[in-house]
Design brief:
The structure is a single chain. It is built from nine helices and ten strands. The protein is α+β, with helices and mostly antiparallel strands and 286 residues long. 29% of the residues lie in helices and 21% in strands. Strand 6 and strand 7 form a beta hairpin. The relative contact order is 0.14. Strands 1-6-7-5 form a four-stranded antiparallel beta sheet, with no helix packed on it. A four-stranded antiparallel beta sheet has the order 2-3-4-8, covered by helices on one side. It binds zinc ion. Zinc ion binds next to helix 8.
Amino acid sequence: MPELPEVEALAAYLRERAVGRTVERFEVSSFSALKTYDPAPSAVAGLPITDAGRHGKFLDVSLGPDLHLIVHLARAGWLHYRDAFKSPAPLKPGSGPIAVRVRLDDGSGFDLTEAGTQKSLAAYLVRDPAQVPGVARLGPDALAVGRDEFAERIRSRKGQIKGVLTDQEVLAGIGNAYSDEILHVAKMSPFALTSKMTEDQITILYEATRQVETDAVARSVGQKAAELKGEKRAGMRVHARTGLPCPVCGDTVREVSFADKSLQYCPTCQTGGKPLADRRLSKLIR
Ligand SMILES: [Zn+2]
């Protein structure tokens, strides 16, 4: 799933490539992906793209003076920028992985695509980003908070740090992948309880969050949109590296299920050498 750094990179790419261009056509191929019906997609034609940014993991493309295309890419969604489209014909409904196509006046544009059968990419045309429920609920951006606000946000939720860090209402932008990286840099167990964290541990976690997210933004921005996904994987220390050696200590990276996903961690660096119990599995055995 694209997280803060990838969405930031997509926004930066759009600011460079698309801002100043005018929308020629806004085509919707997957009507389940577009969550709003007013204003209609046809209202976008003729509007200039005036800015691009993000709210947590939501991409925000500003259209004209007061319209926003807000996109949540979900697990398998992506934005593909095209210098030109092969055919001028409008998309047919249900055309494979393409959910939305935005054609611009210079012949370029972008597709919002989603791989796989589980379709959860969500696009919204709204006058105010806060009209999108997921945006309205967001906590402050993970890269916008200082140490004390970070501490206050983390302590506002009792639970395992892995779940609290990825809760978008606590801090916006951190997902499954970069939270694994942050906890590895902080040398912290993903199952550590926020209620038992010391002030020093919070400070270490804050610094790890800034380091991991700013490094990832720096790596991602400036890359071509098409290359971003590969770069995310290549820069990882433990995430999606089950069975590979930890780059810090050489121990084997392990995996354990967490909520409906899995997380990766290094036992030597993070849990005093002890493997974490797979709760889902032990529930089944009992
Ligand atoms: Zn290690």
